[in-house]
């Protein structure tokens, strides 16, 4: 079956993306500084779009939040702050 989105087996309604911030408490790498260093969204499929607030801005896509935190969490030096409630099933 093809839905109005044009994708086979896609749900008729996707939940909106869930927004978040990355708060860096300690800059272990010496690159991004401390404070609110990035913002992003988690899509309904769990993938992540991340925007860095550094001098040279960039965007990165991750397949899952765990992958992003493994790379940028710096062993707890970075806090993930959700701006939106988790969608209900």
Please tell me about this protein's structure:
The chain is mainly β and 89 residues long. The chain has one domain. It is built from one helix and five strands. A five-stranded antiparallel beta sheet has the order 4-3-2-1-5, covered by helices on one side. The protein is elongated. The relative contact order is 0.23.
List keywords for this structure.
34% strand, 5 strands, single chain, 89 residues, mainly beta
Sum up the overall morphology in one term: elongated
Can you write the helix and strand succession as a string? EEEEHE
Percentage of β-strand residues? 25-35%
Helix fraction? under 10%
Report the count of strand segments: 5
**Biggest beta sheet summary:** 5 strands, antiparallel
The separation of the N and C termini measures 22 Å
> Radius of gyration from the CA trace?
15 Å
Count of the domains: 1
Produce the secondary structure layout.
Blueprint: E1 18-24, E2 35-42, E3 48-52, E4 58-62, H1 65-72, E5 78-82
Antiparallel strand pairs: 1-2, 1-5, 2-3, 3-4
